[in-house]
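Example record

The entry below shows one chain as it appears in the dataset: sequence first, then structure tokens.
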Amino acid sequence: MTWPFSLAVLGVLVSWAGVCPCPSECRCTDKSRLVECRNRNLTRIPQGIPLCVHNLLITGNSISILREAAFMGNGSGFASLATLSLHGNRIQGIGPSAFEGLSNLRILNLSDNALVSIAADAFLGLCQLHSLRMNYALQPSLEGQLWTALHPTNLPNLSELQLVGNYLTWLSEGTPMSSSLQVLDLRSNLLDRIERGTISSWQTHIKLKVYLSSNPLMCDCELQPLYLWLKNTSQIGDEQHIVCFGPNTLNGSALNQLTLEEFECPEDTAASYVFLGIVLALIGATFVMVLYLNRRGIWRWARTFRKVCHDPMEGYEYRYELDPAPRMAGVTAVV
């Protein structure tokens, strides 16, 4: 009984080693359910990652692009993969269906990259994804691609979205959010105002917590909807830390300490100058039109004025010819 049992054990070990090998660029622990490929200067997802992997950490490398089906190199997806970290890989682009085969992935970390392009269906197939972390990962002017890729049809069960420390200047009003979204972290971006439509969308997600501190908010009349919402909701998770960036009179003021009357819109100087220019142009045009319509009368007046002035001028010229230096005449006589 001992010999057959030993053969069976050996067979199981050989079978396990065959199913869950470990690539040379990585370190596999906990029976290959944790695979770490850190700081190996990788330019692509390594081949030979065990299919039984549960947590996959590929960080600190030089993977510039995640191409289509980037994790299908083993011939199939990773059905057991729950956590994937691609932190700090200098990733610049995510192609269509880049995460194909990761149907059970729940946490995806793309932080500390340098994304300049995201395909509209980059996250397609991540039906079980709950947490997406893209902190300090986006280059400027990527908002349009980002909001399209984050459409609920791609991420129907997303509950946490972290976008801290990017260059976001506007938020999508028209793109719906996943109904399961509970955390939206927008701290340390370049948002100077929040549109009314965006706030209305957030209000429909009663379980949602939004974080907005460290944005250069302009506390003028256009920010009133955010102020009123802040005063009447518990959905803003960091309201105590939200301060105004402008105007100068409110710089550094805590948003929740202001009164509604302080949200004023400065006069639009440019518009005022334009209006003044239009008024002056109309006055000038009216004056020219009046002159044109009365051109005959003006001409008659000019001839009459010239005639009236002509006779006195002739008399003066005549007297000048007779005595060109009347004051000198008396001096000459004395001499």
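Notes for this example: The chain has a mean pLDDT of 84. The first helix runs from residue 2 to 19.
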